[in-house]
Amino acid sequence: MEKRCAQSATGSEWFGVDPVISVGDLWKVFGSKASQVVASPELKSLSRAELMDRTGAVAAVRGVDFDVAPGEMFVVMGLSGSGKSTLVRCLTRLVEPTSGSIAFEGENILDADPKRLRDLRRNKFSMVFQHFGLLPHRSVADNVGYGLEIRGVARAKRAERSQEVIDLVGLTGYEKSYPDQLSGGMQQRVGLARALAGDPDVLFFDEPFSALDPLIRRDMQSEVVRLHREVGKTMVFITHDLSEALKLGDRILIMRDGEVVQVGTGDELVGAPADDYVRDFVRDVPRSHVLTLKWIMRPPTPDDVLDGPELGPDTVVREAIRSVLSADRPVKVVRDGELLGVVADEEILGVVAGEA
Ligand SMILES: Nc1ncnc2c1ncn2[C@@H]1O[C@H](COP(=O)(O)OP(=O)(O)OP(=O)(O)O)[C@@H](O)[C@H]1O
């Protein structure tokens, strides 16, 4: 699996720069006793089920912390009910957080007044939902330009920008079509174009492909990967599908019962799952598609002949199989001229054998 940039779970490579979004100890509790719950360390320490029993309140998001870096594709993954949608809706205050902090480009979103929030939602954020939310009586071009129209962008400028993003998402020729003349996948392309039209700083996706057929879904995932590369925007993507998360995410946050279980790159989740829950999630992932050489290399022994081929530690195992198996000596894993370890047939076969 190709990744644009190597990172660690702490995001240290990402965070040479200021985060776009920074979330601290965020809670969202539904129910009339919500503020009592977050004011009480005792109630906060209860599990979601216990809290429900004791107070009738639902702790949808519980003490969540994470940062998203500029240009990152950050995926929030968890089973149904784990709190993904509530968490992401809190980020734009479509859902009002009960406590905690959310900074967007350094600005405390929780202090934003209604006017500022409207501004942010119009100019800085875009959302793509599962149900495309297209206006049925408007053509593709007019749906795509809708946000610009609301912003008061002049017709000619709007048409120009709409055409640009329509071309970008591969809908050239369909400008005059109406949503009901398009397949589900194409309708979601309109949703993508609409989200991109206003040139937002962050795009939020809430399970945008769940309603699509598997093959179309795969196409759309590739499309988002391509768009992300081309436009370089920060994206926050919710899914309950691990393979989607692994395909798209620079980093993945795994939620369970409102809490963060682990945040990491795909190879970190597969190579070093934080607990049995994550281990269970990643059990069926083909490890050779996700793990990189740094996960399987070993220190060289005195018997190793060290004039074999060299590969980087972030090379995905699957892409190294041929080089390793065809070399008659270990492949050296090298970064910036430094020998980090070696990989030979046994290491490769150890990964591949587990996938049978
Ligand atoms: N408005 C609400 N009032 C009360 N409880 C809510 C509300 N919205 C969500 N919840 C509860 O909060 C918890 C988290 O829900 P949420 O929709 O965020 O999870 P999710 O991971 O996005 O699930 P799904 O994939 O099914 O949408 C669930 O127990 C849900 O029932």
From TrEMBL:
Domain ABC transporter intervals: 41-282
GO cellular component, one term: membrane
Gene Ontology MF term list: ATP binding; ATP hydrolysis activity
Provenance organism: Lentzea guizhouensis
Entry protein name: Glycine/betaine ABC transporter ATP-binding protein
Entry keyword set: ATP-binding, CBS domain, Nucleotide-binding, Transport
Classification via Gene3D superfamilies: P-loop containing nucleotide triphosphate hydrolases
Leader peptide range in chain numbering: none
GO biological-process terms attached to the record: glycine betaine transport; response to osmotic stress
SUPFAM superfamilies for the chain: P-loop containing nucleoside triphosphate hydrolases
